[in-house]
Amino acid sequence: MTTTSAAGTAPDGSAVPAAPPPFDPELAAALTVIAESIPRVFTLEMLPALRGANSIMQAPTNEELSLGGAFEITERQVPGPAGAPDITLLIGRPSGATTPTAALYDIHGGGMIVGDNRTGLLPMLEWARELRAAVVSVEYRLAPETPHPGPVEDCYAGLVWTAAHADELGIDPGRIVVAGGSAGGGLAAAVALLARDRGGPALAAQLLLCPMLDDRNDTPSAVQMAGLGVWDRASNEVGWTALLGAARGGPDVSPYAAPARATDLSGLPPAFIDVGSAETFRDEAVAYASRIWQAGGVAELHVWPGGFHGFELMAPQAAVSRAAAAAPLNWLHRVLAD
Questions:
Q1: Does the pLDDT at position 48 exceed 80?
Q2: What is the reported pLDDT for 7?
Q3: Is residue 31 part of a domain?
Q4: Spatial CA neighbour of 310 closest among 25, 31, 5
Q5: DSSP for 60-110, written as a single string
Q6: Quick check: 229 and 308 in contact, CB under 8 A?
Q7: pLDDT of 186-196, one tens digit each?
Q8: Read out DSSP for 247-262?
Q9: Does position 178 have pLDDT exceeding 90, yes or no?
Q10: Residue 162 falls inside a structural domain
Q11: What is the pLDDT of residue 89?
Q12: Whole-angstrom distance between the N-terminal and C-terminal Cα of the chain?
């Protein structure tokens, strides 16, 4: 008797991953609906529509971001990297706060090619409301118009400005957490590396949600999930190629572009890393957490069974989504405890 579910060996001797893990039943049902509005494969030709006024990623208004008055929402133009344009920070300050608060420094997702500093911000604000923390969300230049190092340097410049103006913003500079999901998770990891290597702001922690870490796009999970779920291997290649061009997958990619390339993960702030078991980024996220531990660091890793990329945002009512939304908040309570 033979089976098609076991891993095998390709003619060149490389391992062939087994059949993909199943999606959680609730999430599988949601995927059927999601597939009607989200393209299976993202391409650069789609960018005008994806970034346009009728995009499926509608930006929340300041009123919506205020969460019924829980936050005072402002925007600031601040200096970007040397020789580059200014950047915009969207700042949510807890209404009525009279003492310095912790802050979540948010970096949005979007595969390096779409999104803005309002994208995916509402869940971050929900956590911040519970924590009585501020949120600072950075607007970084997108690929392919701005390749590496532009996006990560924008994010780092915004962090440096935020830490330097902590008193003005009512933020405790010792309790800043760099946070992001997907591409934003990869950029958050890169910003943590930059802060360490440049002697920059001393971060309290890094919150990396389904992070986009490895430009090589060749892990077993990337191969397993090709053509399945959300943001599969083909879309991932588009995003990384937009950022890195012909250098993608080659020997000379900077760890500040693709943090999985870092050879030294010591001396980093405590990390929260999560990922779905049924998504492209599973194995690179697990490997990143493992390498932090191997370097003597602190990381909390969650692999959500049957989760596709971004499941907790796209199918928030599923049981696994509710668990995935609660875990980062519990961790933040611990790392930001006075």
A1: yes
A2: 59
A3: no
A4: 31
A5: PPHHHHTTTTTEEEEEEEE--STTS--EEEEEEEETT--S-EEEEEEE--S
A6: yes
A7: 999 999 999 99
A8: GTTSTT--TTT-GGG-
A9: yes
A10: yes
A11: 98
A12: 60
